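Researcher: We plan to redesign the surface later, but first we want a full-length starting point. Tokens attached.
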């Protein structure tokens, strides 16, 4: 009897994925879902902290009037990094197919893109949260928060990418590790510029609650989450091992 198909060569149980257009489409869909869940993490933690919902468009949100809670600002990034961490756990301990899904989850979460947003564009949840957390003030408050949060995120991103490189077998390892970060940045940019921003232009303004008060604010979140679920079969695909193919051929011949 032939051995079960694995994702990598004998003696190497690191994660790999099927390199195909389906993988990249699946990761893009999963990125859209995680982006929406990132916003929901902000919104629902704000509800828990404040006792009421604030307003939202699609990519922006507010706390309830009069609420000054800080931790909801960090809830979105915490969710995103947790998703990346879950991907690493799947890569480390999952079956061949779950390892492939873990790779996709890591690509979609894109921990390195958190640092990219702060360092390159100078904004983001982490900058706002740092200002509130450290009670920074003055004309240079934003610049100081950007340096502090950007430095912390750069270290966190490097740790995540190093862990990913240690768990993947796709070679050249560091080249593909960097590809994962670049693809996430490109996917997020495309989603925000080509989808979310145009949809926000259709809305009359922010609406109350987790899905706002306009049909677009409900349609896009549900679509994004549905796309990520539909994409899962595209991502639960592990490449066959050459030795397994040889074993199967030998079994048939005998």
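Model: Full-length starting sequence:
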């Amino acid at each position: 009897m032939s051995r079960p198909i694995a994702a990598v060569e004998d003696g190497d149980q690191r994660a790999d994925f099927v390199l195909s257009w389906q993988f990249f489409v699946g990761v893009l869909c999963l990125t859209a879902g995680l982006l929406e869940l990132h916003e929901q993490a902000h919104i629902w933690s704000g509800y828990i902290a404040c006792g009421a919902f604030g307003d939202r468009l699609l990519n922006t949100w507010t706390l309830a009037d009069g609420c000054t809670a800080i931790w909801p600002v960090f809830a979105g990034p915490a969710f995103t990094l947790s998703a990346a961490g879950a991907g690493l756990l799947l890569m480390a301990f999952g079956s061949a197919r779950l390892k492939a899904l873990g790779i996709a989850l890591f690509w979609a979460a894109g921990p390195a893109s958190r640092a990219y947003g702060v360092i390159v564009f100078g904004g983001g949840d982490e900058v706002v949260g740092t200002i509130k957390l450290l009670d920074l003030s003055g004309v240079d408050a934003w610049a100081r928060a950007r340096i502090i949060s950007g430095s912390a995120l750069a270290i966190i991103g490097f740790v995540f990418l190093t862990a990913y490189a240690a768990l993947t077998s796709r070679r050249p390892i560091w080249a593909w590790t960097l590809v994962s970060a670049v693809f996430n940045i490109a996917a997020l940019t495309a989603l925000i510029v080509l989808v979310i921003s145009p949809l926000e232009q259709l809305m009359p303004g922010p609406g109350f609650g987790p899905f706002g008060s306009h049909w677009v604010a409900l349609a896009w979140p549900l679509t994004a989450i549905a796309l990520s679920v539909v994409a899962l079969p595209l991502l639960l695909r592990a490449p066959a091992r050459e030795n397994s193919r040889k074993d199967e051929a030998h079994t048939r011949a005998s």
